Amino acid sequence: MYRDDVNFIENEDGTKTTFKQFALDLAIYAFYTSGDRQGSTRFFNCVPNTIRTHMFEMIDGAQSYSEYIRNVIDSLPATDEEIINFSR
Fold first, then answer.
1. In whole angstroms, what is the distance from residue 8 CA to residue 2 CA?
2. Measured between alpha carbons, how far is 33 from 43 in angstroms, rounded to an integer?
3. Which residues contact 82 (CB under 8 A, 6 or more apart)?
4. What are the backbone dihedrals phi and psi of residue 4, each rounded to the nearest 5 degrees, phi first?
5. What is the per-residue pLDDT across 20-73, written as a single tens digit (0 to 9) for each?
6. 78 three-class SS
7. Phi-psi region for residue 18, left (φ > 0), alpha (ψ -120 to 50) or beta?
8. pTM of the entire structure?
9. Residues 6+ away with beta carbon under 8 Å from 70
């Protein structure tokens, strides 16, 4: 088993990133670039649910994927005027 105090990635600025943090960052990147779509260059659908749960807590404080999507939908503009102002 990996231990955070022994197994880590040392960054150029001298800070250390654990493998767990690196995996979470990679999962977030995969979600932003491909979502849940399947394909030969997409791998978010292979991310375990345990990592997904932590990932959405980090992104939005949401407890689940559905709560995250609900928060995103709630933050979208509701009227035509808000949409016009949102795009500026």
1. 9
2. 10
3. none
4. -60, -30
5. 778 788 888 888 787 777 777 777 878 887 777 777 777 777 777 778 778 877
6. coil
7. beta
8. 0.55
9. 62
